[in-house]
Design a protein that fits this description.
Helix content: 40-55%
Number of helices: 26
Largest sheet: 8 strands, mixed
Strand content: 15-25%
Radius of gyration: 34 Å
Distance between the termini: 37 Å
Shape: globular
Structural class: alpha+beta
Length: 835
């Protein structure tokens, strides 16, 4: 085999052009596959870096929508959120888990050595690190005794990355005091390297006991509430338990606990009781990869892109197979002589496979060189402006193994073509058939491979077109408010240590100071940011309207300042907006959107003066008067739909907290951003601005995933089309060369040179036409899986299908132009003398 390897290397050095072309072609395909796999592996396949991750499970309660309490989520499936009392009951009364942990992430303001910053804090149960099997890098980690009494143990554990990146591996960090939301916390340890959370995609900077939630999430003290779900639960199975066994064993306990919880919920109809208890299930799901707020959003895009790069590498393999097949045509005599001298078939095939593997490994190595830079580019684009990326850009053993496996698999694929061609050992027949084979089966095989490449390139171009149309449609969505000259940022005084009573005065001072800045036209604020894919919602009841048992009465319920609608340029349709007089001492008032007014009152004018209330039930007091109606606009995200909305005055919020500001400027926003930052710092240096940006930039970040997918799809579509064009050119050049004598005879007998060009182009159009005819219906069927990722465009969009077909046709004609020109320039006498 070493001799075969040395011979294969000598063969490649003798044909540097062929070797370079094949290696670069493979490098593009294998490198793209390795890059996307590294992202897909981290998001969908890789287990948590903890002890025995295969024993971990994630709990979910279904059906998740049978709930009339409050729900607070950070992302992911709502079924995976539980109340703290329910978690404690499950933890203490189960007999199938070695431990159950609870966790939830929240933003926190910290101050260390007179430097303020916003960090990602994770509230965890005291047994969190013990159940996961995480060890300390320094000091100690949280234990159950740290998580007993509410607000009783202000201690914190730092993640290794935060300790390294922001505290320069301070060796004496244990025992020091860190201010979190203005409250002193003692640092007791640092977690092990490589572990940053059991929630994938959301690395935590520090960990604090769950019972410290009133400090970490001010004005949200629901540790004792059964009707408030907000945390996630992960468990570790006992060694003799399986997930199906655990789910069956937990069913009686689950239904008993749900029955005991019923008195905590109001207005329990028979339908609610049935769904909440008898029809409810506690699902025990695989938790080796941990819980994730974002994995479900990434799953389909990553799988789609992975499918696209698999097609690209297949096209690269087919192209190289075509090149190898042409090259092997000149080696028929060589291998025939090998057979005549006694070589066995296996020996010859082994030689060909080793030559193919050398090409594949070299192509894989070349592709691997581009992976770090490409991965870094993709990660930076995918996580632009969204904090620490959840992906690593380094190459590890899993990525290396995948790269090597793809390289070997692809090399075996394209090495089979010459191996099958040279399988026969009959010397005489092989040498006699050498000339005929040049225009026979070998050419037919190349035609088939090129037709396949054309079809695959059309499929990828269709996918690319659909994603580009989706991106275009999202960019041009009319969100309902003016986004130009609009700056947004978050400000949370409670994270700087302000009490509930001091929060509103800070916001009022900030609004007044910002409004006085030169170049500022309007300033408004809300506790529910626009186009941030989240929302504060709940049921409402409207006086004089009786809702059906299953009727959706859920409405968005943000608190806003008086000039909020002016800052967004949202038109008032009826009544008035809020004023400074609408404070906690005055009767409650509300402004509603057009959708709510139309649904319950027919038109905006009829809504003025009508009453409603937050919540539902028989004994309720309608205490909120509608004083205005504003035009609808999109709130949750670019793909979102308009929902019923009830706006409340910020001054009537009994639990004020952070707010998102919207500053409209007369001139360019960039000139105002620096003044905004300085103004906030002058109010209090402990206040930290979160995400100072223009609204247009926020929208760009909102569609960042779609932009990234469109970019990748276009790149792979163009690459596939280029490979198809190269393959088509190779087939035509080879076929034209084999028909030199025939073409010479045609010209000698009076054939027009334009006719010769038409002859070649006819062959091309026939090949491309058959490919397109087969590929178009396949593309329409295959792209049905993309429907959830599309926006404003059908998977059978005629514009995309026609454009992709035209582009493939243009590439085919361009690829055929040079061979056709050469065919038309053949001299009859030279052709008649050729072999």
């Amino acid at each position: 085999m070493l001799a075969d390897l040395r011979f294969a290397l000598r063969q490649l050095t003798k044909s540097p052009g062929f070797a370079l072309t094949a290696i670069l072609t493979l490098a593009l395909g294998i490198g793209a596959n390795t890059t996307i796999f590294s992202l897909l592996d981290q998001a969908l396949l890789r287990s948590l870096p903890v002890r025995d991750p295969q024993q971990l499970v994630v709990l979910e309660a279904t059906p998740y929508n049978v709930w009339n309490g409050s729900t607070s989520t950070n992302g992911g499936d709502e079924a995976a959120y539980f109340s703290y009392p329910m978690y404690k009951d499950l933890r203490d009364q189960n007999k199938v888990f070695d431990g159950l942990i609870a966790m939830v992430q929240a933003q926190a303001g910290i101050e260390w050595r007179q430097q303020s910053a916003l960090v990602s804090a994770e509230l965890v149960s005291g047994n969190y690190f013990d159940v996961l099997g995480v060890r300390p890098a320094l000091g100690r980690l949280l234990v159950q005794q740290d998580d007993v009494a509410k607000n009783g143990n202000p201690v914190a554990v730092l993640s290794f990355n935060y300790w390294k990146d922001h505290m320069a591996l301070e060796p004496h960090i244990v025992g020091q005091t860190l201010a979190i939301n203005g409250h002193p916390f003692q640092i007791i340890g640092v977690s092990q390297p490589g572990f940053d959370s059991a929630i994938w995609g959301s690395p935590a900077d520090l960990f604090v006991p769950m019972t410290m939630k009133p400090v970490l999430v001010p004005n949200s003290d629901d540790l004792d509430r059964h009707d408030s779900r907000w945390l996630n639960v992960v468990g570790r199975l006992k060694h003799d338990e399986t997930r199906p066994q655990a789910q069956v064993a937990m069913a009686p306990l689950w239904h008993a606990l749900r029955t005991a919880e019923l008195p905590s919920f109001k207005n329990n109809s028979k339908r609610f009781v049935d769904g909440f208890v008898s029809k409810s299930n506690l699902n025990v799901l695989d938790g080796a990869r941990g819980f994730s707020y974002s994995r479900d959003d990434l799953r389909t895009p990553l799988l789609v892109v992975m499918g696209m790069v698999v097609l690209v590498v297949l096209m690269a393999a087919v192209n190289v197979a075509s090149l190898v097949l042409v090259r092997s045509a000149g080696r028929v005599r060589e291998f025939s002589i090998r057979y005549a001298l006694g070589a066995k078939r296996g020996r010859v095939i082994r030689q060909l496979l080793i030559e193919g593997m050398v090409l594949g490994v070299l192509g894989g190595a070349a592709g691997l060189l581009q992976v770090p830079a490409t991965t870094h580019f993709l990660v930076s684009r995918m996580t632009s402006g969204q904090g620490q990326p959840p992906f690593s850009t380094s190459i590890d053993g899993r990525v290396l193994a995948f790269n090597f496996a793809v390289a070997i698999g692809v090399s075996l694929l394209f090495a089979l073509a010459p191996a099958l061609q040279l399988w026969r050992s009959d010397l005489a027949s092989q040498m006699k058939e050498q000339s005929a084979a040049s225009t026979g089966g070998r050419l037919t095989f190349r035609r088939v491979t090129v037709a396949l490449q054309i079809g695959l390139s059309l499929l990828l171009l269709v996918c690319s077109g659909l994603f580009v149309r989706t991106l275009h449609n999202l960019r041009n969505v009319n969100v309902g408010f003016a986004t130009d000259h609009l700056i947004t940022f978050g400000l949370e005084p409670n994270l700087a240590g302000y009490t509930k009573e001091a929060v509103l005065p800070v916001h009022k001072r900030a609004l007044e100071s910002l409004a006085a800045l030169p170049g500022v036209a309007e300033v408004g604020a809300t506790d529910d940011a626009e186009l941030a894919d989240n929302g504060e919602s709940g049921n409402i009841s409207v006086q004089g309207y009786t809702a059906g048992e299953d009727e959706d009465m859920n409405a968005e319920r943000p608190y806003v300042t008086p000039d909020y609608f002016a800052a967004l340029k949202v038109p008032l349709l009826a009544g008035r907006v809020f004023t400074d007089a609408d404070d906690a001492t005055r009767p409650k008032v509300a402004v509603v959107n057009q959708t709510l007014a139309k649904r319950f009152f027919g038109n905006p004018q009829n809504a003025i003066g009508r009453m409603l209330v937050s919540g539902a039930g028989n004994k309720i007091k309608y205490d909120i008067e509608i004083v205005g109606v504003v035009r609808d606009y999109i709130h949750r995200g670019m793909r979102g739909k308009v929902k019923m909305t009830v706006y409340h005055p910020a001054a009537q919020n009994s639990n004020p907290a952070g707010m998102h500001y919207y500053v409209r400027t007369w001139g360019t926003p960039d000139a105002t951003m620096g003044m905004i930052r300085n103004t906030v710092q002058q109010i209090d240096s402990k206040l930290v601005i979160d995400g100072l940006n223009t609204m247009d930039a926020e929208i760009d970040e909102n569609i960042n995933d779609e932009r990234m997918i469109a970019l990748l799809a276009v790149s792979f579509g163009v690459l596939a089309t280029l490979l198809a064009g190269i393959g088509l050119y190779g087939v035509l050049a080879y076929a034209t060369a084999q028909r030199t004598r025939e073409i010479g005879v045609r010209i000698a007998l009076g054939s027009d040179r334009n006719g010769i060009v038409a002859l070649v182009l006819k062959d091309v159009l026939k090949l491309a036409g058959i490919s397109v005819a087969v590929a178009v219906p396949v593309a329409i069927f295959a792209t049905r899986v993309l429907k959830s990722q599309l926006f404003g465009v059908s998977n059978a969009d005629p514009v995309v299908l026609v454009s992709a077909t035209v582009l493939v046709a243009i590439v085919a004609v361009v690829a055929a132009a040079l061979p056709a020109r050469r065919a038309a320039s053949v001299e009859p006498m030279q052709a008649l003398r050729s072999e």
